Amino acid sequence: RVYTWGHGGEGRLGVGQCERIGVPDREKCYFPTPALVSSLSNVKIRQVSCGALHSLALDAEKVVYSWGCGNGGRLGHGDALGCARPRAVEKLRGEAVVQVACGTWHSACLVMWAPFTVGGVVYTWGSGYHGQLAQLDIQVALEPAPVEYFLDFHLPVRLIACGTYHCAALTIEKELYTWGSNMHGSLGRLVDDEDGNDFTPLPGHVGGFGAIVGEIGRGLVRSVACGRFFTVVCTYSYEGPTLEMAERIMEDMGLRKPENDGKDEEREKDAQKEEREKSISISVSEERVLVPFRCSKCDHCTGYQLNLLRAGICQSCGHHKLLHTLEPPPNDTTQTQIVKVAANAAI
């Protein structure tokens, strides 16, 4: 049996009334204790699902029931009218429905359908202005319709989930697909849209499961749930190769070059360092230059010496070179002097 409680507005509780009688006005819409949904008392319900303003139920005979707000066709009855009591979705009668899921403005179910013997086909209906229906250009569907993508690519689905603006499906191979709004990255993948839209009606594969990501193994997806702008998955334990095994396999397949002992990289770094030091180092060279010798202002100067820090000033006595004569010191027999000239090799 099915029981509901909480806010009864829009007939979302399925008890046939939206307000209680004989209570204060501020409490009329509240049903604080579980109430029996009498319309479903004679059927065996196997699963229920709640959206923002509507609900779905699936019985043992694969019949789908819906009730609550009908705006946008989310109930699947061929119109936008609401229902205060559960009503069978006629479009799905005779179909082998195995799961139902509610979004905010849309609904979905999973139907066993030939040629699939395991898994099934996704059906969607309701309002899908953010691509939730995965029916390409169709934005509003008043009745359930299959998602052709999974049929075209022969992808039997075993689990579906609906969020506010996006959906997810898990195939029998434990591969995850998402579609709808990608706001805040809720799809877990990039959306390639030529118009720059941040949503897509086309299901796409979410990678990174059953593989090593960031040196940590991620298992395949076991279960998935969608919320408002976010998605949650539960995975199996990782059973693939270790990181070392994966690297070795890639090397054997020629997809990755084997790593060296690191000496080549060190040699390259040393060469770059040496070149850098050479470009900024100061080389000292000897060159013969004709220079003025004795200082006319002092007797202790042994001859003009080039000052690299103060141009034109003698490093020996501190006087300007114009005050030095070309007359060599008494003991010097040459008019040239060997001086150390420091020059920046980079200049």
UniProtKB/TrEMBL annotation:
Residues 254-280 are annotated as: Disordered. The keyword Repeat applies. Keywords: Repeat. The keyword Signal does not apply. PROSITE patterns: RCC1_2 (PS00626), RCC1_3 (PS50012). RCC repeats lie at residues 1-61, 62-113, 120-173, 174-237. Pfam families: RCC1. This is Uncharacterized protein. It comes from Heterosigma akashiwo (Chromophytic alga). The lineage of its organism: Eukaryota, Sar, Stramenopiles, Ochrophyta, Raphidophyceae.
